[in-house]
Structures are given as C-alpha cells and as structure tokens.
Specification:
Blueprint (H helix, E strand, L loop, with lengths): L3 H25 L57 E10 H12 L2 E3 L2 H4 L2 E9 H12 L1 E6 L4 E6 L9
Parallel strand pairs: 2-5
Antiparallel strand pairs: 1-3, 4-5
Helix pairs in contact: 2-4
Length: 167
C-alpha cells in the first residue's frame, strides 16, 4: 500500500482548515466605524496644577574655567626623595657571591666582586632596606659594598683593599 498520496491529501485539508480559521478570526471581530461626529464619545480629563514646595535650582553659566597650558616643570633630582624598597632576606650558610647576586637581582642591578671574596660564608636572615642588608653582608663577609644607583651596579671590594689613612 502506498500511503504517500494520503499524506498529501491530509496536508492540503489541514492547510485549508488553518487558512479558513485565520480568515474568520482575523476579519470577524472588527467594529464598524462611526458614520458621523455625533456618534463619537469624547471624554475630557483634567489634571491638577503642579505646585513645587521648594525653590527652583539655580542655573549655572555655561562657561567653564580652564587653566592655561604651561610647560611641565623641570624635575630636580636633588630635591626628590630617594625611596628604597624593603625586602626580606633569608640566605643561611651561603657564600658572599650568592648573597650579592641575590641582592642585586632584587633591584634589577648588575654586580661585580673579586673572586677571592665570593667564597666567604655569610648567614643573613633579616628584613630591611637594601642598604641595611648590604651593610650586614659587608659586616659578616669583611667586605665593602656600595650601590651605584646611576649605573645600576652593586660593587663589592675586600675591606683590606680599601684605602686607609695612616696616623
């Protein structure tokens, strides 16, 4: 048996029923328009006058203040404060070379030290500025260290190599 022809017939009947219902519902509920102006009902609504209990807000001028353009002032490095970061340093039983490299890398600086100084042992466990930590490394390792902030270098020399004045 071939049912495909019955499906086509059913589809056509369903389409006809839907079109008829749509036409009946869409067109059947419309009211007729009035024939003259006497049939139109007019209702008028009156609203009370608004009374404000406060004064009106002041109207500001539309002109704005602006500062005249000026060249930026020259920055003076001598008057600006020099800020050093506070770091926590924990290097126990390490060499001077390792502590100097760690301290310089904490600031992003380069470092230089003599090879005979790098093998000395120090033990650092403290929190403070990099200058304070360098002073403690210098005390324990018997060295002299200094920061060159202009060239971003940490330099270390042996304390015996530092020039001294004889009395």
């Amino acid at each position: 048996m071939n049912f495909s022809c019955y499906h086509r017939q059913a589809g056509k009947w369903m389409l006809a029923i839907i079109a008829t219902l749509g036409f009946a519902v869409g067109c059947g509920t419309q009211q007729r328009p009035p024939r003259n102006m006497d049939e139109i009902e007019v209702t008028r609504e009156y609203y009370p006058v608004v009374h404000k209990r406060t004064l009106p807000e002041p109207v500001y001028g539309r002109m704005m203040w602006s500062h005249l353009s000026q060249p930026t002032p020259i920055r003076n490095k001598n008057t600006a404060p020099f800020l050093l970061p506070t770091v926590e340093f924990d290097l126990r039983n390490s060499s001077v070379a390792e502590t100097i490299e760690s301290l310089a890398q904490a600031l992003g600086y380069r470092w230089s030290y003599p090879p005979e100084v790098g093998t000395r042992k120090v033990s650092i466990l403290m929190e403070g500025t990099v200058e304070e930590i360098l002073a403690e490394i210098s005390r324990q390792g018997n060295i002299v260290g200094e920061f060159d902030h202009e060239q971003r270098v940490l330099r270390v020399i042996d304390s015996r190599m530092q020039p001294q004045l004889k009395p």
